Each structure stands twice: as structure tokens, then as C-alpha cells.
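ok here's Ubiquitin carboxyl-terminal hydrolase 39, seq below lol
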Amino acid sequence: MTDAVVNEKRGILKRKVEEGSHIDEGDESGQNNKLPRKQTNHRLCPYLDTINRHVLDFDFEKLCSVSLSRINVYACLVCGKYFQGRGINTHAYTHSVSESHHVFLNLLTLKFYCLPDNYEIIDSSLDDIKYVLNPTFDSEHIRCLDTSDKMSRAIEGTLYMPGIVGLNNIKANDYCNVILQALSHVTPLRDYFLREINYSRVKRPPGDSMFLLVQRFGELMRKLWNPRNFKVHVSPHEMLQAVVLWSKKKFQITKQGDPVEFLSWFLNALHMALNGTKKSDSSIIYKSFLGSMRIYTRKIPSTELDDKQKAAMLLTSEYQDVVTESPFLYLTCDLPPPPLFKDETVENIIPQVNLYTLLAKFNATTEKEYKTVKEDFMKRFEIIQLPTYLILYIKRFTKNTFFIEKNPTIVNFPVKNIDFGDILTPEVKAKHKQTMYNLVANIVHDGEPGKGTYRVHLLHKGTGKWYEMQDLHVTDILPQMITLTEAYIQIYEMKQD
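and the structure came out like this:
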């Protein structure tokens, strides 16, 4: 485009706005040092009707689509693309002239500008765009989240329930999506991250940017519960980029992973980023999920010894119980091995087990053998403190020399009123005011080990309904159907008195 044409277009634009605004040219790099001396309103900006809310998507990385710079980035509200700067010869300025797109939003300051004339737009009709980019919640709104059954409507007219919003699967990140969805329904965790003021004052050591993980999780949480979304799904792109960075590529967007490994890493990483310590109340993570158990460990004499030698060794201190106390963020439940042989009549019968049978591992009396290269041990587990939110990991996959094997055993569990006090000793149970729990999230694995897909069942407390979510697909589901799935990770909430 020639200079003459550009100048002609600029002259036309100036005549349209006439004397309604002070024009701030900005510098060549797009870093503007001046502020408008006179604020305008929508009557003085003739281009607000060119804004296309259907193409606006603020879920992705805030960088210029031309220079890939993260500095001073503006979103074109007509086509949705990101460009750097707004001064003469910047990418945003060039785009506005060549494409006749004139309304831009600064993604950092949340201010609107008209280019190429470079004046700020002050108009309340743009508040919905600002809210989608940065949703905010007050205390009263947060208190009503678990009691409200009000539906919201996206721009295209689709109804959705805040909190029950699909997450985009970029390639193979469904194992992350189910964990992020499940954690978004842990009430104290959600309430904490919905208000940025709760963690904005956390100070990290100089040069450490791990706090970015906290910020990204807070942003994702606010988008999932946003009652004014433009669309009925959210992309976790920025959140997962922070995960890839801080896990040193252990967890990736393009390669399937294990949700329980991601959950363990993510909770500990958030705890550290919030300056958490070993104290149970040092972060919202520990306040919600931290429990405690005693582990009784004793050595087993070698099988090569005769009975007399074994009896003598068992009397020595080396073979007595060693008691240690250990905190936990989740409990690992072991499934009984599936039947080795099947005949024609039981070929299609899937083995089943009761949840309380799996929990017997933690009743302080059931022993389990653990083998190492040199020695064998027997261990007993005694829970001495139940957390507010109890996470169960049902171990379905076992690795051997050649392949990974999946145990298809169905776990029978109630959805409501599960008494975990049954596995506590009388002394420990007496110290707990409440031991009854309700299920709030259930993560399921479908398919072959190492491959397959993950989906999650979530309870929306406001409606009392259960929803099944698999990436972008959201459907309601009867609670009776949840118990028929191959449960992998479950989150239980302690009932309030």
C-alpha cells in the first residue's frame, strides 16, 4: 500500500472523529508514554459496531501474531488476532490501516483504542469483553456458587452451567484436563483461586517465576466459573504451557500421561509456589487435602532359613515393627488380581470388588507384603488424620518386564454417605467430629493401558446433578451409572456438621 493511500485513509478517519479526541501518536516501538487528555465515548467512535465478539478468544498465549513478542500486545476486536504496539509503523497500526480494522484492546491494561487515530475509547458497552478477558468474583458471588442453579447463555445462544464447561484437548492433554476439572470442584480450592487478592501478595525469591503456575491456574479457574463467557468451552493452553515449563517437559500437551502422576506433581508444585511448608495449614493445598497416617514396617526372615532360625530372628529388634508417621495427599488402593483363567461361561464377566474391601488396607491390622531386591517387608497402615477432601487412587496399571497390564475390576462404591470412620481405630475415630464423605469427582480410564482416554464425572452442587465431561463434550449422567465405570481417581468431600 502506497504512502498516499495510507495518508488518505488517515485523513478520512480523522474527519470522522473530528475534534472529539486528542490523538496520541505513540512512539515507534508501540510503547506509549502519553495518555489522552480528553476521553471519548461511543458517540465519537464510529467503529464499535465492527467488533465481532464471535471471533474473540483470550485463552491463548498473549503474543503478537507477527513478531511473536509478548510486550505491549493488542487484540484486534474485529478479527481476533494479536498485534504488537499501536504507534506509527507498529504491527497493530499497519493492520488497522491495511485491513480497516480499527478497535483494539490492550491485553495488559484492558484499555480500548481506536487505530490508526490512536485515541482511547471509553464505553460501558465494552465491559463484557473486558470481563471475558479477566473475570472477577466478589465474596457474595462466590458464596452463591454452590447454591445457584442459574444457567448462563453464550453469544451464539447456547445455555451452559458455570463450572460445567468443556476443556479443549489440544492433542493429548485429556489426562491433565480431568485433573483440572476435578480440582475446580473442590470448594475451598476454587474459592481461594477465584479471588486473585488471596494469592497476589505471595512473594517468591528473586529470579523465580514458579508463581506463574499459580496465576495460570487462577485464570483458568475464573474462566471455568465465568457466568458471562462468550463460548461454552475453555482452552487450557496457557495453563498447560506453564505445566510443560515447570515440570521440565515431564508432562506434555502432545503425549499422553498418567493423571495420578500429574495430580501428585501439580498439588506439590502449587503448594511450593504458595510458599507452603510442612505445616498442615501453610497453604490451601494442605488445608484441603493433607492427611496423616502411621506406617508399621517389619522385616521378613529369608525363606531359606528353617523354622527355628526364623523364630529366633523374629525375636531380635531388627525384625520388630518400625513405626513412622507420614503425611499424604492421596491414598493408593490396590485392586485384587483378576482371575488368570476364563472359561466360556465367565468370559464376559468382569470381576467386582467393594470399596470398603480396598480401604481395609488402612485399618491398622491388614498387612501387605513389599519386596525389594535384597529384603522383604510387611507393612500395615493406620490413618490418624482424615483430610477435608480425601483423594483415592485406584491402582489399575501394573508394569512388568514386557508390557503394562490393566486391571478391569469394577469397584462398587456409594456416591453419598460413605463412612471412612469404619477403617479408623476407635481411638482415632473418637478424635474426628465427622467421618462421613460424599463423592464430588470421579475420573475414569477407558481403553488400553498406555493409550485410551480419560473422562471425569462431576457433581454440580447448585443443581445436585452429575455431569460427565470428556474434553469438550459435556452431558448429564445418572449417579447410578457412575458406579459402573472403571474408576481411577476419586475425590470425596467431608460432610459438614
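fwiw The longest strand covers residues 436-446. kinda neat tbh
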